[in-house]
Amino acid sequence: MDTLKAMRTFVTIAEHGSLTAAARLLDSSLPAVVRTLAALEAHLGVRLMNRTTRRLALTDEGRSYLESCRGVLSAVQDAEEALKEGAAEPSGPITLTAPVQFGQMHVAPAVTRFALRYPKVKLRVLLHDRVVNLLEEGVDVGVRIGALDDSGLIAQPLGHIRRVVVASPALLAARGEPAHPDALRGAPCVRFTGAASLSWSFQVNGRALQVPVGGNLEFNHIAPAVDACAAGAGFGLFLCYQVRPHLASGALRVVLRDFEPPPRPVSLIYPHARLLPGRTRLLVEWLKHEIVEGGTAFAPDPD
């Protein structure tokens, strides 16, 4: 039995929770993956996974062996890459995902500079305003804004971004500046499609307050929603980077500063660090430096 191959197969199955997904990622057949797992369990004399028609679950022995396999495979990978370093520059594919506007403003410029510096790395950048499942969708690195709930992923915090309510000077002149979140009940609001379009979160005396909001404009993209607010169509709740240019120009103003909800964390996420290819580790470190230290993503907000 090829022990290293069997270990790679087991780790891939465990991290993706699917024999079919493992077969696809390993460029193998489902029967071959099943045979490899069965042979590994027979070789070890223990059951590594409990299998039903609907799910796979690691046994206690399987969880322990998974960590051991990761260590062994990482050591092999590090040894191979140590020999290759200096003989060849980083190369190979990397798939990266980020939210659309944050990606356009802060990730794409950093990735472009990376591509110019390392021309043999083939970068594929996917910008989505949805939660991308890295393991299921074959993505190597993600930029995530908000709470993290992905099991089996490593997260490196980059910073925090405020959530702010904004309005145009014209709207504030017509309606007055709200003194409390409850003033938004019945006020025109420009909403963004999703659960948060029905009510907005605030902090009042250290406690969360949900305020139902209405209005006759709802968008599934941020940019036109911001433009509608700047045109005076209503109040809007946005992440601060989404409205920073409009705040700087005076087209929008921040209101209800004393009631802002907690800022949202921004993180880099990727699969288990021990199994990252060298090129992916390089990109992670590059993005950390470029976004946090070399960019404006977390610069003071002009409000």
Automatic annotation (TrEMBL):
- Can you give the residue ranges of the HTH lysR-type domain? 1-59
Name the record gives this protein: Transcriptional regulator, LysR family
Q: Which PANTHER family match?
A: HTH-TYPE TRANSCRIPTIONAL ACTIVATOR TTDR-RELATED, HTH-TYPE TRANSCRIPTIONAL REGULATOR
Q: Which PROSITE patterns match?
A: HTH_LYSR (PS50931)
Q: Does the keyword DNA-binding apply?
A: yes
Per the UniProt record, which residue ranges are transmembrane?
Answer: none
Q: Does the keyword Membrane apply?
A: no
Family matches, as Pfam families: HTH_1, LysR_substrate
GO terms in the biological process aspect are: DNA-templated transcription
Q: Which residues form a coiled coil?
A: none
- Domain of life of the source: Bacteria
UniProt lists the family membership as follows: Belongs to the LysR transcriptional regulatory family.
A GO molecular function assigned to this protein is: DNA-binding transcription factor activity
Question: Which keywords appear in this protein's UniProt record, sorted alphabetically?
Answer: DNA-binding, Transcription, Transcription regulation
